[in-house]
Amino acid sequence: MSGSSPQAVVERALELSRSSSCMVLVRERSTADLRWAGSSLTTNGVARSRTVTVIALTDGPSGTSVGVMARSGLRDDELEELVRAAEAASGSALPSEEAAPLLGPAEAGSGGAWDAPPAATGVDVFSAAATGLGRAFRASADSGRLHYGYAEHTVESVFLGTSTGVRLRHDQPTGTIEMNTRGNSAGGADPRSAWVGRATRDFTDVDPDALDAELARRAEWARTPVELPAGRYETVLPPTAVADMMVPMYFDSGARDASEGRSAFSDGEGGVRIGERIAGLPLTLLSDPARPGLECAPFVAADAPGRDVSAFDNGLPLRRTEWVSNGVLSALGQTRATAARLGTPPAGFVDNLVLEQEGAAGGTDDLVASTERGLLLTCLWYIRMVDPQTMLLTGLTRDGVYLIEDGRIAGAVNNFRFNESPVGLLRRATEAGAPVPALSREMGDYFPRTEMPALRIPDFNMSTVSKAS
Question: How far apart are alpha carbons 97 and 93 in whole angstroms?
């Protein structure tokens, strides 16, 4: 919108509202990115955008109906049209099952300075990282490897206002860097391909030289190709691959689905498995808005009602929550409406995830060193749900499956299709390392803030050989 601050848009939309209740969210997004291919920078740029969402509530004899309208690139003179469209949608909608009274200022959480201008980023955030990338590019001729990848930094400022007086604001910096390498041998195919990735708040903790050194190590491992059949293998999952499996489990750990018999956390008798041991090791799975390095919004800011996250809960404080405590399922995500139906405390989903075992030490290399024969599975992709009631997932390996023999990497193995449940992996894991920041290859674009350990799985199911490369 030209001329109006996000705070002014919130206030004006609330003034225009004629519905029973109203919520307004304005998301200001500033993005900078770099892209490179063939060891050469190809594109870079910056962008800014604004999205305005109006949520109109209409109270009636059968309940409260909801109308949601969102628009980007909105002009000042189009705001009333957006508000009226949300009200019209609310008037024609059925009552919402997630309806609950809106929170007031005394019940809502806390946020940043409401009156401050939106935060922003720029290409200068990449200054140190770009210097390191340049060194890797210049070394391509000597290393026999080409570099490909993408780095992005986004700062999103969300402004939430409600007709009950809530005014909350949060600034979220999010950065990711993904680096691929491929062999550049003259005159023939080169099997060397590897990937590494890292999430960050501001790129000050990103070391491209260290990332490229890991790529070089994996490329060297890949000089020796090994063909293996499908089967169950003892497998070391580094933190990135653990994130690949834990994030889908987190996304599908809602109390409502579990209570309705739709998930792996259903007890089969109309209840949920809270209080049941689901991990063989004393692992704790938690989310915490204040986790150092993984800081995220401390309150709910939802654009619509939903089964697990609802706009009716906008402003609800989010706190440290243990989903699994020392191997025992201790909480499932749920809205206030679901919590009221189940008679349990509400547990809002937080935008980060940590898996840890108290006292665990070491990392991927330590687990590899103590493996007689097995696989090192660096990342997964194209992960899809097969059976929600067991949380069985299928997907493919990519850019690095390696054979471990006598504690050393013996070569790169062909790719596989796998069939595994993250709940099953927690139950069967026999060893865990210390948690470190980890970017999921599959889910990192949507959920980058994770901290995971390496895990040893005695019988990871590689169901078929894949021709993917």
Answer: 12
